[in-house]
C-alpha cells in the first residue's frame, strides 16, 4: 500500500483479507524482488505431520485439493501484474504421498495462473 507502506492480501480485487504492518518488514521499504506462494505445516518431533490445505492431494483435482489461483503481484505504481509462467518454479521438499503440488500454468479466465497443493500429512513425510 503506497500510502501506508503496509502489505495487503486481497482476494478478487475487492476483498481485503488482511495486511501485514510495515513494521514487520522494514527491509521491504523499497519493495520486494521475490514473492513465494506456499503452504507450510509443522509437527512436533515424534508426532505425525498434520494435513495441509484441504488435506487432499492435488491429483484429486480442483474440487478437492487446496488452490492458489489468479496469482498476481502489485508493482510500485499499484498495478496488478499476472505472474508469468516462466517465473514459476514449483518446489516441494516433502514425500509426495504426504504433500504435493501441481502447477497448471494458465487455467482459464477464472483462475489464470494457478496451482493445487496440500495433502493428508502423516508419518515419514520428509523426502
Question: Would you kindly provide a written description of the structure presented here, covering whatever features stand out?
Answer:
This protein is mainly β and 127 residues long. The protein folds into two domains: 1-33, no CATH class; 37-118, no CATH class. The protein is 3% helix and 27% strand. The strands form three sheets. A three-stranded antiparallel β-sheet has the order 3-7-6. The longest helix has 4 residues, at 108-111. 14% of the residues are buried. The model has no long low-confidence stretch (mean pLDDT 88). This is DUF239 domain protein.
Structural descriptors:
single chain, 1 helix, 3% helix, two-stranded antiparallel sheet, mainly beta, 3-stranded antiparallel beta sheet, 127 residues
Topology record:
Blueprint: E1 7-11, E2 15-20, E3 66-69, E4 72-74, E5 80-82, E6 100-106, H1 108-111, E7 113-118
Antiparallel strand pairs: 1-2, 3-7, 4-5, 6-7
Q: How would you concisely characterize the structure shown here?
A:
3% of the residues lie in helices and 27% in strands.
Amino acid at each position: 500500500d503506497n500510502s501506508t507502506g503496509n502489505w495487503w492480501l486481497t482476494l478478487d480485487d475487492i476483498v481485503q483479507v488482511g495486511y501485514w504492518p510495515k513494521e514487520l518488514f522494514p527491509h521491504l521499504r523499497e519493495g520486494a524482488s521475490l514473492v513465494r506462494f506456499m503452504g507450510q505445516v509443522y509437527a512436533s518431533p515424534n508426532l505425525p505431520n498434520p494435513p495441509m490445505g484441504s488435506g487432499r492431494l492435488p491429483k484429486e483435482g480442483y474440487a478437492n485439493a487446496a488452490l492458489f489461483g489468479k496469482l498476481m503481484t502489485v508493482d510500485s505504481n499499484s498495478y496488478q501484474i499476472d505472474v508469468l509462467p516462466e517465473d514459476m518454479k514449483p518446489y516441494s521438499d516433502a514425500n509426495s504421498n504426504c504433500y504435493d503440488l501441481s502447477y497448471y500454468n494458465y487455467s482459464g479466465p477464472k483462475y489464470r495462473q494457478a496451482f493445487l497443493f496440500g495433502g493428508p500429512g502423516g508419518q515419514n513425510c520428509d523426502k
